[in-house]
Amino acid sequence: MYKVIVTDPISASGLKALTEHDAFQVEQRVGLEPEVLAEVICDYDALIVRSQTQVTRDIIQAADRLKVIARAGVGVDNIDIDAATEKGIIVINAPAGNTIAATEHTLAMMLALARNIPQAYGSLTSGKWERKLFKGVELYQKTLGVVGMGRIGTEVAKRAKGFQMNILGYDPFLTEDRAKKLGIIKASLDEIAAQADFITVHTPLTPETRGLINAEYFEKTKKGVRFINCARGGIIDEQALVDAVNSGQVAGAAIDVFEHEPPENPGLTQNPKIIVTPHLGASTTEAQEKVAESVSEEIRDILTSGSVQHAINLPHISATVKQKIKPYLTLSEQMAELLMQIFKKAPKTIKINYYGELFLEDTGLLTRQMIKALLSYYLDSSINIVNVMQVLKAHGLSYSVQKNAAHKGFTNFIELEIGNGEDKATIACTNLSGFGGRIVSVNGYRLDMEPERYLLYIDHMDVPGMIGNVGSVLGKGKINIGSMYVGRETIGGKAVMVLTVDKPVPEAIRSDILRINDLNDVQFAEINIEESVD
Ligand SMILES: NC(=O)C1=CN([C@@H]2O[C@H](COP(=O)(O)OP(=O)(O)OC[C@H]3O[C@@H](n4cnc5c(N)ncnc54)[C@H](O)[C@@H]3O)[C@@H](O)[C@H]2O)C=CC1
Ligand SMILES: O=C(O)CCC(=O)C(=O)O
């Protein structure tokens, strides 16, 4: 039974994928104090939050059973991603579920700001009739600067065009071509400052975007510009905004998100020219249903089949790429497990070569699978594909990946080499269409081996009677041989034999095999034959 804890208000109907699944038990414990969450988190496999719960390093360190932290929304700045990654916990979000809600809120804020609607409402409901005081401005033919042309920025731009605004878009990833297709103008931040009547920000909060709009920027803007922030508090420097509004440089602002929530700056929240909402961008029935559905379906898939779609701390791999690399996911891991059990020394260097059609693919997941298998041999079993690169770095190890379009005799071919400065070992695999995965070379010897759970790797000289001698020792030990693969350098030269056996080979039998004349080394290996990540 997987236990899931929900600590922020989440649409109950959106959680059906978990609440109606026999393998899951969902507990809604909204508003837990951080110390209490840190105490109870060790009982859960998954945690679902919105933006209120701060998922700190302390909480994550106490989360020994946790496999997934899910953000029912976009921004993950309330989650310590580094701490989660180090602990091997996948962090996911629901990137698209609240796009429309946040877009519409931005437009609502822009219109309310232009027409002083909140101020007028407050005045009228307090018994006044102040028509002159609340004269507004039109959006028609005004210039809107959109900073951050991702999902929400793009949708805002499309809708603002409906008001016949001229749109300037700034985003490091915005191309001329895309801007043209959207009917907007690609601009720099300074061009937006010089031309825009309204500026709306839609970036994540990162070290680069914190204070992106600051006192210096306000000096460059047109006098009387209006700002909207429905993205993240801190992208616009709050105190600098208050000062710019008070000086008249900025005519007004509409703010949904704050550096601290609830906000602590009365200059911002009680300013007649600044309208505010309490982080309502995503608060629609539809958006909350969609984000809850998205994260609960993904938690179900991750925990039951290992399939991940919206991980923040894993490389993104599209469904098409996943399909192409799927035959290699388990195979590459098995090959790395076998190599470590043959090499039996901590690797200092790791080289991975991808050949053939894999040249064109995103092989990041395969690389992680192999490195995870190599490191797990010596390090503890908490290494997984989420934290593997951190563990590698923490041990001062590095790896290199090369890709080559050459086919090496197979449509696709993966070669793994590990070394410790003195010795090295290599292994390679391919997937034969219709026949499945094969290990096709070990330490340079050609083989055609189907991976099996129990294996014996024997390094020997190619002399008559070798196979019989090994077979007879195994026979005496009542160990059945399933199949045998032999590769040799030259007739009578060095050779390797890999046997698949039906059960583990005890150390005593391994020692007996080692006593056979002309036999250099023998290693027993056990590899995982379960399908790994889907
Ligand atoms: N108020 C609310 O309730 C909600 C707020 N949000 C917030 O809205 C923001 C945008 O969300 P999405 O559009 O879904 O994200 P997104 O990831 O689709 O788009 C963000 C865009 O910002 C761009 N960007 C990053 N650094 C930049 C920089 N220095 N200058 C200019 N552009 C930069 C990226 O290239 C990307 O295109 C996020 O901060 C998210 O957390 C999202 C939903 C609801
Ligand atoms: O869950 C919420 O209400 C906040 C949504 C949000 O800010 C986000 O998705 O980034």
From TrEMBL:
<comment type="similarity">
    <text>Belongs to the D-isomer specific 2-hydroxyacid dehydrogenase family.</text>
</comment>
<comment type="pathway">
    <text>Amino-acid biosynthesis; L-serine biosynthesis; L-serine from 3-phospho-D-glycerate: step 1/3.</text>
</comment>
<dbReference type="InterPro" id="IPR006140">
    <property type="entry name" value="D-isomer_DH_NAD-bd"/>
</dbReference>
<dbReference type="Pfam" id="PF19304">
    <property type="entry name" value="PGDH_inter"/>
</dbReference>
<feature type="domain" description="ACT">
    <location>
        <begin position="455"/>
        <end position="532"/>
    </location>
</feature>
<keyword id="KW-0560">Oxidoreductase</keyword>
<comment type="function">
    <text>Catalyzes the reversible oxidation of 3-phospho-D-glycerate to 3-phosphonooxypyruvate, the first step of the phosphorylated L-serine biosynthesis pathway. Also catalyzes the reversible oxidation of 2-hydroxyglutarate to 2-oxoglutarate.</text>
</comment>
<dbReference type="InterPro" id="IPR029752">
    <property type="entry name" value="D-isomer_DH_CS1"/>
</dbReference>
<dbReference type="GO" id="GO:0006564">
    <property type="term" value="P:L-serine biosynthetic process"/>
</dbReference>
<dbReference type="InterPro" id="IPR045865">
    <property type="entry name" value="ACT-like_dom_sf"/>
</dbReference>
<dbReference type="InterPro" id="IPR045626">
    <property type="entry name" value="PGDH_ASB_dom"/>
</dbReference>
<dbReference type="InterPro" id="IPR006139">
    <property type="entry name" value="D-isomer_2_OHA_DH_cat_dom"/>
</dbReference>
<keyword id="KW-0520">NAD</keyword>
<dbReference type="InterPro" id="IPR029009">
    <property type="entry name" value="ASB_dom_sf"/>
</dbReference>
<dbReference type="GO" id="GO:0004617">
    <property type="term" value="F:phosphoglycerate dehydrogenase activity"/>
</dbReference>
<dbReference type="Pfam" id="PF02826">
    <property type="entry name" value="2-Hacid_dh_C"/>
</dbReference>
<dbReference type="Pfam" id="PF00389">
    <property type="entry name" value="2-Hacid_dh"/>
</dbReference>
<dbReference type="InterPro" id="IPR029753">
    <property type="entry name" value="D-isomer_DH_CS"/>
</dbReference>
<dbReference type="InterPro" id="IPR002912">
    <property type="entry name" value="ACT_dom"/>
</dbReference>
<keyword id="KW-0718">Serine biosynthesis</keyword>
<dbReference type="GO" id="GO:0051287">
    <property type="term" value="F:NAD binding"/>
</dbReference>
<dbReference type="InterPro" id="IPR036291">
    <property type="entry name" value="NAD(P)-bd_dom_sf"/>
</dbReference>
<keyword id="KW-0028">Amino-acid biosynthesis</keyword>
<protein>
    <recommendedName>
        <fullName>D-3-phosphoglycerate dehydrogenase</fullName>
        <ecNumber>1.1.1.95</ecNumber>
    </recommendedName>
</protein>
<dbReference type="InterPro" id="IPR006236">
    <property type="entry name" value="PGDH"/>
</dbReference>
